Structure formats: C-alpha cells, structure tokens
Amino acid sequence: MAEQNNPQTNGNSNNKNNRNKMPRINFTWIYIIIAVVLGYLFFAGGEMDNNGTASKSVTYTVFKQYVEQGYANKIVASKDEGTVKMYVKPEHIRDVFNVGVDQTGKQPYVQAEYPSADKLDEFITAQQDLGNFTGELSYKKSNDTFMQIFWNIFPLLFIIAVWIFIMRRMGGSGGNFGGMGSIFNVGRSRAQLVEKGGENESKVTFKDVAGQASAKQEVQEIVEFLKNPQKFTDLGGKIPKGALLVGPPGTGKTLLAKAVAGEADVPFFSMSGSDFVEMFVGVGASRVRDLFRQAKEKAPCIIFIDEIDAVGRARANNAMMGGNDERESTLNQLLTEMDGFGTNSGVIIMAATNRADILDKALLRAGRFDRQIHVDLPDLNERKAVFKVHLKPIKVDETLDIDLLARQTPGFSGADIANVCNEAALIAARHGKQSVGKEDFIAAVDRIVGGLEKKTKVMTEEEKRTIALHEAGHATISWNLQYANPLIKVTIVPRGRALGAAWYLPEERQITTREQMLDEMCATLGGRAAEELFTGHISSGAMNDLERVTKQAYGMIAYMGMSDALPNLCYYNQNEYSWQRPYSEATAKLIDEEVKQMIAEQYERAKQLLLQKREGHKALADLLVEREVIYAEDVEKIFGKRPWVSRTEELLTSQQEEETDQDQAQDSSPEPVQPEHSVLSSWHPDREGAESSEQASAL
Fold first, then answer.
1. Catalytic one among 218, 263, 307, 471?
2. How far apart are CA 613 and CA 469, in angstroms?
3. Terminal CA-to-CA distance of the chain, rounded, Å?
4. What is the dihedral of CA 474, 477, 479, 485, to 10 degrees?
5. Measured distance CA(427)–CA(415) in Å, rounded
6. Catalytic residue list contains 263
7. pLDDT tens, 552-570?
8. How far apart (Å, rounded) are the C-alpha atoms in residues 665 and 658?
9. Helical H runs in 173-282?
10. Backbone angles phi, psi at 560, to 5 degrees
C-alpha cells in the first residue's frame, strides 16, 4: 500500500533504474573527435573550401598582378562581403598554388578584398581592353552568402551542442566523474535522505545502543518532540532547535544519530561537515541553503551533520587575505539558517563532533544548539553492557567472566571493545579453538594496547636482567602503595616498541586526589629507581616513564594548583594557537623548580621503598627472567595479599550483593496459585533474555 500511495517514490526508482540501464559513453573518444574536427577546421580551412576546392587569400595588389598576367578564368565579386574571387585557369594553377591540377580540385580560386566597386569595374574593364582578361565580371547575389555564414558558425554550434550533451550526461550519471557531478548541480545539497519504508531506511534503533543511558535518554526526547509536539507546546514550551553530540572518537555519536533515524517517523537528512566544503567560492553556502530548503519542504524532520567542526570552526579575527572566506561564508549561512530572520518550524538540527572546543561561539549559543549531549567513554557497568552486545555473535567459553573483561579495559570506547571481541575471535581461530576463552581476550587486549609480541628479538642476558629489574620495580611499588593501580600482569617479552610492559587496573574515579597522583607517580618511577639501585646505572628504557611523570607533574602544578609554592593557581591557556604564555618568566622558572622537586621527592620515595622490599623485588625479578610473564597471583605469593581493596572491586562487590539480594527476594516471593493444567505453571522469568533485549553497541 505504501508504494501505491507514493507515486513519487516509484517515479524516482524507475528513473534510477533507467539511468542504470543507459549505456555508458566513453568521453575520451568524444574529446578526440572534437579535437580532430577543430584541428581540421583550423589547419585545413585556410587552404581548402567546403567543396574540397583549393583557395588562397591574397592582397588586392597581388590579385591585380594575377589578372594582369592573364591567370584569371572567371571573376566573381560580392558587394556584401567586399571580396572578389578570381578562378584560376588550369594551365596557371601551378604558378599560383605550386601544386598540380589533380591536387587543387575543381575551379581553384584566390580571394581578395577590393577597395570599392567603381575601382574594381575600372580595373577589370582596362584589363579586358588590354586582352589580359577575356571573361566578364559578375556579382554574387546576397542569398548566396547563407551557406558560407552557416559554415563559418558551424564549428561554434558544434562545440556548444557537444558541451550541452556532455553536461547533461554528467548530471544524469550521478557523478561518474569521481564525485564531481554536474556543473549545474554543484550547489545542490549532498545530504542523504532516510525515510520510513525508503531504500535508505536505517535498521539501527535505540535497542542497539548500550552504555550511553543518559545520552540515549536525551536523544529519545528529541524524537518524542517530533512525534508528539503538542504535548510540549500546550504548556507554552518551545521545541529545541538543535542538539550537539560531543565526545571522544568511538563512543557512539554517529550510532546515536542512526538510532534516531531508525526510531523517528519523520524524514532524516544525513550529511558530513566536509560535504559543504568545495573549491568553488559560494558553493558551501549554496548547499546549506538547498539543504534547509529541502528540510522545510519535508518538515517536521531532522538534519544530522557529522563532524561539524569541518565547517563550524571558530572564525578568525584577522583572516589573512580572505583565505577563509569560503568556509566562513558557509558557516555564516549555516548560522542564518539555524536561527536567523527566517523560521525553520519543525526542523531539528543534530550534529556530532569530538572538537567542541574549536567550534564558533555563535554556533553554540541557545537558539541554535540548545542542548549539548556529552557522549563520554563508558564506565565499568557500561563496558559490561557493550561487551554483552558484541559477544552475542561470538562463540565464547562458558566460563568467560565479563566482569573481568570490563575491568581490564578501562578507558576503552565502544569501538575499542568491538575491536577486542573481534581480535579475540581471530586469535582463537588462529589457534584452532572451538570457542573463545579468557586467554584469547587477554591476548587481544595486549595486542591492541601494546602491539605484537616480538619473541624473535635478540637480547643479551644482561639486557634481559635489566628489563626484569625495571618491570619488577614497577610491580613492587604498585603492590605496596595504597593508591597505586593494582597489578594484572608483567612481561619482559618485547611487544611493539616496548622491551617490557606491565598491565594495571586503574580505578574508576570521578575525582583524583593529590595523594593518589603522587602514588601513581612513585610507581611509574619505580623502574628507573630499580635500575639505579640494583644495576648501578640507568638506561634509556625509562624514557616513556619519564615522559608520563613529567606531564603529570606539570599538570598538577600549572593546572591543578597542587604545589606548595603556587597553591590554588591555574595557568591553563584555552587558546591552543596562542604562543603567549599566561604567566611570567619568573613564574615559569618557579613551575620548573616545583616540577623538579616533586619528581625528585617521589624518586627518592621509590628508592626507599625498594630498599625495604629488596628481597621480594629480587624474587620477582628472578621469576620474570625464568618465566618472562607473571601475573598478580605470582606477586601475591611473594608479597602477600594487598591490604587495600580498590574502589573498583568495592563497586563490583556491592553490585553483586545487590543482584543476589534481588534474586533472593524474587525467589522468596509467594507464587500465585495456578490451575492444574494452566499454561502459566511452566513459565519462569528469563532475566538474561530480558536484559539482552535491551543491550546494544556504542561504536
């Protein structure tokens, strides 16, 4: 029924099919033909006329000489053109054209411009009296010039006709020229229209989005605004005009937009910010106008602009020689269309970016993007939900602990988690396994974070011992400091560009205290401290550790105000393109001194702790040299169980207790009395199925 009620859709599909069935034309041959015709007309037009007869243009003086020498067979003059033609006798053709009779065609002639008809008549009459010319002077009628005029303008008409044909073919072919499209349609919008029942209908819904509960709720409200606007306008409210999705890459911004397109019962225009940018001046603004014109015709509808920072970057105060005029004119047109003098009733604009800090302030004001929806990296529980979605198509081992996977992937986005699941499946298939187990997922995380193992890299025993002491230093200090991240695994097998690596489990914190940062800094310096204490020298292996510690110390002192000499001061410079520092040279020197002092204190603290745990550190290093890879269980056997429980473990324990209490409460509730043969008597609630139906992936 939908297809019968929408003849426009049928017409568009038929036109598209007809275009696909049309034979493709090789435009290279058309260009060659045009070049040959033009070359022929240019080079041959001066020597041969349209009938294949030789012709030659001369001056009036030369024309008179030819007549005086008796070369003229017939003379024809044209008063309209002011020219005279002298047809050459056959016996004098070689004298005039330097070729034989067989190469000049019939009736070859020379042509000249005469000054006036009276002088021409006097000259011809005098030559007749002298016997140099025996024929008669005749004048061509005006009607005879039509064909000559046609042949003169024919090349131009031919070029125009071919050009129009090519342009029409380019417009109908939908951009066979690498996306250039028709020159007449260069200012048209390239937005993709998604509608219910259309061929571009989105299959993604809100059930396919997991790990972004708050962002999904705000986006669902936008769909509700369009489905039932009267519910909000009856109370005097106005429907928001725009929503900006902001967040790191891979967190699910575009996926949320796809879900909106799949859920909304209104047209959905999808476009990238780079689609507005073009080399031609004014094209971007024209495409913005055309996009909103189409949206107004389809209202109520949604416009989604992905990576809007490509066109919405902040305008410069001192643009150099108009270099940004095209981009800025496009942005100005976008600002005008979103909330300008005209109205866009029923049109909601959604956009996504991971660089909201560089967007123009006029674009972010209320009335344009009324809402900024933050799509952050998933936390522990959200990562569990995302893992459940991506594990559905994978044959996993029954003993796989999803909680452990979620804990081992802090800071991973939805796209990273999808990559982990895919990489684990590939690793399991590479080893010929029937299912994907815990070891495969751990190997996948190691592969993504650290790179491939390089067991073939040649190392001496001394180098191997130094690396083991270095990594054991990290493990020893992190195990014995309260706020350091708990250890998961340590290896001295080269991986990627690193000669050794240690994996930790960062805590899920909303805020971080100074003491927690100092413990992390001390644990990071444990590798260099162990090298100096137990080998007597330092190496280049601690370069990455020193880089991280230096950045952390500068952040604590210059941005967070965690210095005794510079307390409660923040020197953060919001303008990243400015070379001017927001503090003086004296302050810069003081910041440097504070950074040196803070790092030196934590370095001495690390050495003192390693001296206290000398025996345990040596046992850990020996175990690393022997086995190359050790886990938290091995460290626990040497140093004993950690006296502190991480915040992440406390959260997991409390959540598991709550789930257990809920299950017990459901089990202890009285069951309703059912008839003996009731169908409901065999029904049991499937909590896992109910949960899985609401999960989704946030890529």
1. 471
2. 13
3. 36
4. -70
5. 18
6. no
7. 999 999 999 999 899 999 9
8. 10
9. 213-227, 230-233, 253-263
10. -100, -5
Between these two residues, 550 and 227, which has the higher pLDDT value? 550
Say which amino acid occupies 675.
P
Give yes or no for a contact between 193 and 269, defined as CB atoms under 8 angstroms apart. yes
Say how far apart CA 48 and CA 62 lie, in whole Å.
20
Specify whether the CB–CB gap between 591 and 557 falls below 8 A.
yes
Tokens representing residue 420 in the block? 């982990």
Closest CA to 344 of 309, 394, 294, 274: 294
Q: Which helix (H) or strand (E) holds 349?
A: strand 347-353
Rounded-to-integer distance, Cα 103 and Cα 93, Å: 10
pTM of the entire predicted model: 0.62
What sections of 340-413 are H helices per DSSP?
361-364, 380-390, 402-407
Question: In Å, what is the CA distance from 422 to each residue of 79, 414, 416, 432, 488?
Answer: 88, 12, 10, 16, 22
What contacts 625, CB < 8 A, 6 or more positions away? 464, 465, 468, 492
Q: Which of 583, 608, 477 is nearest to 600 (CA)?
A: 608
Amino acid (one-letter) located at 116: S
Cα gap 84→483, rounded to integer Å: 107
Structure tokens at 388: 């459940």
pLDDT tens figures, 625-671: 888 888 888 888 999 888 887 666 666 566 666 655 555 555 544 44
Long-range CB pairs of 310-319, under 8 A, 24+ apart, other chains included: 310/272, 310/273, 310/274, 310/276, 310/277, 311/273, 311/274, 311/276, 311/277, 311/284, 312/273, 312/351, 312/353, 312/359, 312/360, 312/363, 313/358, 313/359, 313/360, 314/358, 314/359, 314/360, 314/361, 315/360
Q: What is the CA radius of gyration of the chain?
A: 42
Amino acid identity of 87? Answer: Y
Beta bridge partners of 244: 351, 372
Task: Give the Å distances, CA to CA, from 484 to 270, 290, 502.
Answer: 46, 57, 13
Is 528:545 a contact under the CB 8 Å cutoff?
yes
Are 219 and 371 in contact by the 8 Å Cβ rule? The answer is no
Amino acid at 681: S
Read off the tokens for 696.
């989704």
* Percentage with pLDDT > 70 across the chain: 74
Listed residue (502, 392, 406, 403) closest to 436, CA to CA: 392
Residue 271, number of CB atoms within 10 A of its CB: 20
Any residues with CB less than 8 A from the CB of 175 and at least 6 apart, and which? 181
Torsion angles phi and psi, residue 622, rounded to 5: -65, -40
Sheet with strand 72-78: strands edge to edge: 55-57, 109-113, 83-88, 72-78, 137-139
Alpha helices in 451-525 (DSSP H): 461-480, 514-524
- Rounded Cα distance between 633 and 121, Å, is 122
Q: Where are the alpha helices (DSSP H) in 144-212?
A: 145-172
